[in-house]
Amino acid sequence: MTNSALAQLEGVHFSYAADRPVLSGVDLALHAGERVGLIGTNGSGKTTLLHLLVGLLRPTAGTVRAFGSERKTERDFGEVRMRMGLVFQDPDDQLFCPTVLEDVAFGPLNLGKTPEEARAIATETLEMLGMETFQDRITYKLSGGEKRLISLATVLAMAPDALLLDEPTAGLDEESQSRIYRILRELPQAMIIVSHERAFVRDVSTRIVRIDDGRIVATE
Q: What are the strands, taking DSSP E only, across 112-171?
């Protein structure tokens, strides 16, 4: 582990219950320019790891660092969440505004942008993803693939330094998977990508890490 990492876990343990450990001494670092594919079986701790990095969960032991500082308190992680965007596995956990434009503009508004600035950022982000015609669409009426792209847009609109993507292609058809793949390959942000789609992970990642029984057991 080095201090040059954007984010890192050092000897991290986590349990939802005392007799049910999920992570057992995990060490993992994400550096600028990396796209780390995180693979493992169901229940191996992949989503838990992402949530620990942004403070949605707190380790029972070990250290979480992000952007050069140890992170412990809610205030610490407030800064992290502005710079490290988490795209949830279920888009319905991320999208809650009536229209697509409102959802994408929500993050910039929370960062202190004016309504005009937030709207401009949201419009630009949707254009970048080829979703400009979706601005006035009703969010809950979108298809699964469309929701995943809009979820990504809500995070990208905040101009994060890093992305955490939880199963970004789950349940998508081949065309939608290809679209997500092309977008991720072109983005400059460092990212950790959790996926069961081994071919997708292999093609989009700069390195692959496998987690098994709560530990990092292999890298490729």
A: 162-166
* Domain assignment present for 189: yes
> Is residue 1 included in any domain, yes or no?
no
Instruction: Return the residue matching tokens 């050092």.
Output: 10
Number of domains in the chain: 1
Q: Does residue 2 lie in a domain region?
A: no
What are residue 165's DSSP bridge partners?
A: 87, 193
Rounded mean pLDDT, 136-157: 93
- Mean pLDDT, all residues of the chain: 93
Contact 182, 173 (CB under 8 A): no
Buried b (16+ CB within 10 A) or exposed e, 144-171: ebbbbbbbbbbbbbbebbbbbbbbbbee
pLDDT at residue 54 tops 70: yes
Has residue 18 been placed in a domain? yes
**How many Å apart are CA 120 and CA 141, to the nearest integer?**
23
Q: What is the pLDDT of residue 3?
A: 57
- Residue 85 DSSP one-character state: E
Please give the pLDDT value at position 193.
97
Task: Report which residue type is found at 5.
Answer: A
Q: Give the CATH number of the domain where residue 214 resides.
A: 3.40.50.300
Predicted pLDDT at 56: 97
